Amino acid sequence: MTQYDYIVIGAGSAGCVVANRLTQDGKTTVLLLEAGNPPNLPEHEVPLGWIKLWGSEMDWAYFTEEEPHLNGRKIYCPRGKVLGGSSSINAMIYIRGNRHDYDRWQELGNPGWSYQDILPYFKKSENQQWGASEFHGVDGELSVSDPIAPAVTSQRFVEAAVALGYERNLDFNAEQQEGAGLYQLTIKDGKRHSAAAAFLVPILDRPNLTVTTGALVTRLLFEGTRTVGVEYIHQGTIHQSFVNQEVILSAGAFDSPKLLMLSGIGNAEHLRALDIPVVVNLPSVGQNLQDHLHVAVAHQATQDLPQPASTSNIAEAGLFLYTEGRLDAAPDLQFYSAPVLWTHPAYAREGSGFAATVCVTNPQSRGSVSLRSASPNDSPIIRMNYLQSESDVQKLVAGIKIIRQLFNSSIFDEFRGEEVAPGANVTSDEALRAYIRETCDTVYHPVGTCKMGTDADSVVDPELRVHGVEGLRVVDASIMPTLTTGNTNAPTIMIAEKAANLIKAAGRVLEQVSLKTA
After folding, report:
1. Are the CB atoms for 473 and 503 separated by under 8 Å?
2. pTM (predicted TM-score)
3. Fewest 10 Å CB contacts: which of 182, 262, 345, 499?
4. What is the mean pLDDT of the chain?
5. Catalytic site residues?
6. Distance CA 353, CA 415 (A)
7. How does strand 381-383 pair with strand 368-370?
């Protein structure tokens, strides 16, 4: 039998940070379990190579069920199965979200999660190329840098937005998020800087940290409602490890609820139907699933354009804006500009081109994650319910029209060829809605399935402790009550930084209680 102070499940963006922070105290022992392995594909470090990682051994390669509002399409959902998790296969964009996102979390019953509360945790992780400021830190492990060689069409996208009256924004992570600019990236020395590269690899020699890869956790172990350890399969053998203090579940928005349910925490009716003994009836597990969805406008170019640099992440430039002029809320549309013909395969063309996509930052559609069976080897049932809400469709229609305005600007006259998607003949709102349902795709930002809060619909409390049990926290994007405005990797790292402080504080209290009772 092996015993540790803490067991962290999942070495993704959150798990790497938690393992790093907890083992800073040399007396604290941590076991970090990861179902994947260390990255071993050359494309992993090359920013431009991220799409080649999809479907590889580094990807869980999940699919949704048939989406009823997307013509029955099953949507591919890449998720990192590797040290670093999805930060090892993502497009590396560093966006924190909007201050209104976090103030809203606090309003929903989560004290300590306002923007002012969480800003120090963003700064703590960050090594910002621009230097330290009110909004940025330089002492953190994660490199945040400008794109090295952005394509000319990406720069023209920003210029076109400014020409149309949108503000130029040099820093989406500072005082104001609205406007157009180039995205900053988690790249260091021209290579991907994943959470594993930043937070885990430099500390692998800590004697109080044990990292086991290729370890599929099958269930949590309980004594009554107290979490005492985990069971996992490693090299074909079942192992059990136990904890003195807590288990931290950081498996992501699909696999964290899956593991809770496999362990008897979830909707009792669903669990009993699969002959899983119920530990806690918590129907909210796996509910509240949210994701960003985007749709493209693409043009062929009238001349051969240079191929994107190896340091390009493809989605080089962006724009945040309000469709309804609500300055008391977060922007409701986010755009990505790409120097390639980035579009649905049905609209693919040979040759040079450029594209932009738009996504709704605050979608109203909600989905769920449930168990396919009681076997940990089976993928979960993922129902996104994309475009369930008509307001999400209407905003995407508005976004397509804005992209067309940008691309029809005189700034693109030099490059603008035929619009290949959706096509110049697709003009009515009805036709655009049909195009959206035919071609829209995920932006890979699933969150919300272990919602933080104190209401009946929540899974964890504001300190990320699972309701109804002891010694168990969820620390990853699944705890978000609502989606943040933008990409979710940076917010997930922030969540882990804050959680590590909460865990350390609780550990000190437990130690004091133990000493008093000894």
Report:
1. yes
2. 0.97
3. 345
4. 96
5. 445
6. 8
7. antiparallel
